[in-house]
Design goal:
Layout: H1 11-17, H2 22-32, E1 56-66, H3 75-89, E2 96-102, E3 112-114, H4 116-124, E4 127-132, E5 135-136, E6 147-149, E7 152-153, E8 161-165, E9 169-171, E10 174-176, E11 181-185, E12 188-192, H5 200-218, H6 225-236
Parallel strand pairs: 1-2, 2-4, 3-5, 4-6, 5-7
Antiparallel strand pairs: 1-8, 1-11, 9-10, 11-12
């Protein structure tokens, strides 16, 4: 389990981590925290309507949603609950990334919580994007620069509402708690334990150096199995 975050990491570190794509961060994690090789990242394919956006790095804001049944709260309490949700989204360490679990079971994605309005509202509240196994809509009207990884795209929001927020959620196989550090791009998302975050840039650079001899021979016009074998040996000797 990741240690609870008591203070934000340096903004410069988050900016450095955002220079790498999420697969590279996963590679670096295999060096720094090999025990997490099978956990902590999305393991199901997700839709990304904005694949050209750069990676995002931020602290998780978590919630669960439903859309196939109407909220049981009276109208006045629904409005109050929505404001409390937005207050939660807009506070805490930043920047932030929403991680939203759809708990409608076999009807997951029935209604979209995310569209033109919520993408713009959450962007204004300091969020960089959303990772959800639910659906999204209004793609052409989406907040500019606000990244999205979603389970599906659909036309309606049904009875969608936030059921609860601030707790542990599980999205596409990735378990996330509020304030977890998230790295995400078009490939998926991963939880970065904050206590090892500062070790990842050096590990990412090491991964790149180890790949270079292999890539050079693989892209060479005079590729051969013998040269590949030698390149693999050189790669393994890089530390």
């Amino acid at each position: 389990m990741n240690k609870p975050l008591t203070a934000p990491l340096p903004a410069s570190l988050l900016q450095t981590l955002a220079h790498y794509d999420t697969p590279t961060i996963c590679n670096a994690m295999e060096i720094v925290a090999p025990e997490r090789r099978l956990i902590g990242y999305t393991r199901k394919q997700m839709l990304c309507p904005f694949p050209d956006l750069p990676p995002i790095v931020g602290y998780a804001r978590t919630a669960t949603i439903r859309s196939v049944m109407q909220s049981r709260l009276p109208p006045a309490y629904r409005s109050k609950a929505l404001i409390e949700y937005y207050e939660y989204v807009g506070t805490g360490f930043g920047p932030r990334i929403m991680v939203i679990q759809d708990i409608d079971g076999s009807d997951i994605g029935y209604g979209a919580f995310w569209g033109e309005v919520n993408s713009n509202v959450h962007k204004a509240l300091g969020c960089l994007g959303v990772v959800t196994d639910g659906s999204i809509r209004d793609v052409p009207q989406w907040a500019p620069g606000f990244q999205a990884l979603a389970g599906s795209i659909g036309p309606s929001h049904g009875w969608v509402h936030a059921e609860c927020f601030g707790g542990q959620v599980r999205v596409a196989g990735m378990t996330v708690r509020s304030d977890d550090l998230i790295h995400a791009d078009r490939h998926g998302a991963i939880v970065i334990p904050t206590e090892i975050a500062d070790k990842l840039p050096a590990a990412a650079e090491l991964c790149g150096r180890r790949e270079q001899p292999i890539l050079e021979i693989a892209r060479s016009a005079d590729f051969s199995l013998e040269k590949l074998t030698a390149a693999l040996k050189r790669s393994a000797e890089i530390h």
